[in-house]
């Protein structure tokens, strides 16, 4: 029974969340906005209104590949959102601008996340190798090292949650205050942003579940040694 629950947690839930995001995004990709601006135009308007003239808005390939690169100060939008004039396109574009506003304001969780990037990258790259070797050799010490490395990657994902939710909150507020959407369009934009946020929640839950599984494995290994 425990294995079935674990399988549902790490496989089924993320899949359902991805389906929900895809369906929600596709639905509101067909719904236009009162402003008629494209995602790129909306992003540029908000950036300029906040004095962020040095931040570029670029088109990138891929589906929902939108992101903000703080190193090059670039808002990168997938083709559908760069050119699209829908609720979905504007919501996603302005969400990425929300990260620029966080950086401008010195938003603490964003600074912490940036500082954790090198550690999280190392942790995600070596954790499973250390864990696998620890399990094969029945070495609790190697397993513990792998768990510590994984914990760094999980911490990064946990810190990502407030960063993403805050960016969405900023996006919704600025879209209304700047006239990109009307009050009666707010609910639709919120659904798009919430659907995207759920993917981060699902990924974090899965990562924590994986970490706890290996912690229990380590505890069992220690008990066998005693």
TrEMBL record:
One of its Pfam families is Zn_peptidase_2
**InterPro entries reported for this sequence:** Zn_peptidase_2
Annotated TM spans: 6-21, 115-137, 143-163, 192-216
The UniProt keyword set, sorted, is: Membrane, Transmembrane, Transmembrane helix
The protein in question is named Zn-dependent protease
Source species, please? Answer: Neobacillus bataviensis LMG 21833
């Amino acid at each position: 029974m425990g294995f079935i629950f674990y399988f549902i947690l790490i496989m089924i839930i993320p899949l359902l969340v991805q389906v929900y995001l895809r369906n929600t995004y596709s639905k509101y990709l067909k719904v236009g906005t009162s402003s008629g601006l494209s995602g790129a135009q909306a992003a540029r308007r908000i950036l300029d209104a906040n004095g962020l003239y040095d931040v570029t808005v670029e088109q990138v390939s891929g589906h929902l590949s939108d992101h903000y690169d703080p190193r090059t100060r670039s808002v990168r939008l997938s083709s559908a959102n760069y050119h699209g004039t829908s609720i979905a396109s504007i919501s996603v574009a302005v969400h990425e601008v929300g990260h620029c506003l966080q950086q401008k304001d010195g938003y603490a969780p964003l600074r912490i996340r940036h500082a954790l990037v090198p550690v999280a990258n190392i942790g995600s790259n070596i954790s499973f190798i250390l864990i696998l070797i620890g399990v094969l050799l029945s070495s609790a010490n190697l397993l513990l090292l792998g768990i510590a490395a994984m914990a760094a990657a999980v911490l990064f994902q946990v810190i990502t949650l407030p960063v993403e939710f805050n960016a969405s909150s900023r996006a919704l507020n600025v879209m209304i205050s700047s006239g990109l959407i009307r009050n009666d369009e707010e609910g639709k934009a919120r659904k798009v942003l919430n659907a995207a946020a759920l993917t981060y929640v699902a990924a974090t839950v899965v990562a924590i579940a994986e970490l706890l599984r290996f912690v229990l494995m380590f505890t069992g290994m220690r008990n066998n040694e005693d």
